[in-house]
Amino acid sequence: PYTLGNLPLRNRICRSATNDYMGNPDGTVSPAQLNLYRELAEQEVGLIITGHACVSPDGRNDANQNAMYDDRFIAGQKTLTDAVHAAGGCIGQQLSHAGGKSPQAATGSVPVAPSALEYVPGAPARELTIEEMHRIQDDFASAAVRAKQAGYDGVQIHCAHGYLLSEFIDPTWNVRTDAYGSDRFRMARETLEKVRAAVGPDYPVLLKVHSNCQGEASDFLAALTEFLHICADLGVVAAEVSGF
After folding, report:
1. Of 31, 90, 121, 240, which sits with the fewest C-beta atoms within 10 Å of its C-beta?
2. Global pTM?
3. DSSP 48-86
């Protein structure tokens, strides 16, 4: 057994978040997902982390991704957490915004990102304004509150694998000339601050962050290490460091 923050786990096995592509097209939980997460709990996985759920309509990754940008998604998510808890498991929800990787077919809009670049070949993104960035930070916080209301034992903020927060910390993807370019970790840090303020001091908040970057950046490892220390000070209970 292990205690993560204040969350008791029956063992130290964690199922890392993996997109299952099995949600309903309207963003709700499907019967296939209920079966998947119930089976993981029945097989005694200590902590299950779901595939990423989008926090904003303009940040959807695919047509079958779960969504948490509206209260209407809470009830369906509650059926999932109830199934896991009934089998003795613990479950956290991963939250993300797909940023420049958001396909226009799934969102109905041009992808948004730190900079006006092609994060996906042939699909140029529009650079976010600071006001839009603050709105997305608030979307993460609101989604985390919904996850808590739906019975999740914690949330994991996705800052890896080329999604929006990950795009900000990578110098290849973030060529902004404002404060969010000179401090590439600022967007993620402020997001975590808002999430922590929204869910309270005792609710488990985790982070997934990438350990390398697309281009040459001699200072990346040092900056990442400093960022992780800041995350600990913000009350992040665990960080999953993941490469491309």
Report:
1. 121
2. 0.96
3. EEPPPEESSGGG--STT--B-SSGGGHHHHHHHHHHHHH
CA–centroid distance for 54 within its chain: 8
| Helices assigned H by DSSP within the chain | 31-42, 74-86, 104-107, 130-149, 164-169, 179-182, 186-199, 220-233
Question: Residue 2 — very low, low, confident or very high, per pLDDT cuts 50/70/90?
Answer: very high
- The SS3 of residue 22 is coil
CA dist 222 and 80 (Å) reads: 39
* Coil vs helix vs strand at 147: helix
β-pairing, 7-9 with 2-4?
A: antiparallel
Check: CB of residue 106 under 8 Å from CB of residue 159. Answer: no
Quote the CA–CA distance of 78 and 227 in Å, as a whole number: 33
How do residues 187-206 score in pLDDT, each as one tens digit?
Answer: 999 999 999 999 999 999 99
Active-site annotation holds for 203: no
> What's the rounded Cα separation, in Å, for the pair 229 and 87?
35
**Residue 7 pairs with which residues in a beta bridge?**
4
Report residue 216's pLDDT band, with 50, 70 and 90 as the boundaries: low
Cα 186 to Cα 56: distance, rounded to the nearest angstrom: 19
